[in-house]
Amino acid sequence: METSFWSATVLLILITDPLGNIPLFITALKQVRPERRRRVVLRECLIAFAVLLIFLFFGRHFLELMQLSDESLRVAGGVILFLIALKMIFPGEESAFSGKTQGEPFIVPIAIPLIAGPSAMATVLLLSTREPARMLEWTGALTITMLVSTTVFLASGRLQKLLGEPVIAALERLMGLVLTAISIEMLMGGVAAYLKKLG
């Protein structure tokens, strides 16, 4: 499956799921003073951006060191995305944010894993290993994704009041449905490439 710049951008936005993460984000910032929240949001988004850039540019070398093939990464990425999509469609009661957040969050849990989670890391790894010649495009797609996430999180309070939790939950399920189709496509592509290599 050919991945365009815009399809990569949409995929990354779906995976980071800023709209669906609004309630968790607000919970994580409950203990932060209102005047500091903007600074915390910008800091955490920058940290997540830096982590994903590291995976984008240096993850390929790690895979080579571990002697992992592109096909295995595509299958693994498809499985991870499928599990994330199922969780978006059928959210459980328990989450990493269900407990009380003590003080100001730093790196965990907002930057990692709320924004730069395992699925986002696997996706940027997949993009960089499949088509390393297009790193400038993948960097641009990641930059747009992080700008969208930052904007949504900065306006999270207003968006939650404006849309309401039922609308946010419905949007998350819709994004989960789209992500399910993408994950199946990725999984089938990895299996097909592996079978072709065997043949």
Automatic annotation (TrEMBL):
It is found in: Cell membrane. The chain crosses the membrane at residues 6-29, 41-60, 106-129, 135-154, 174-195. It is a multi-pass membrane protein. It comes from the Bacteria. Keywords: Cell membrane, Membrane, Transmembrane, Transmembrane helix. InterPro entries: Multi_antbiot-R_MarC. GO terms for cellular component: plasma membrane. NCBIfam families: NAAT family transporter. Belongs to the UPF0056 (MarC) family. This is UPF0056 membrane protein.
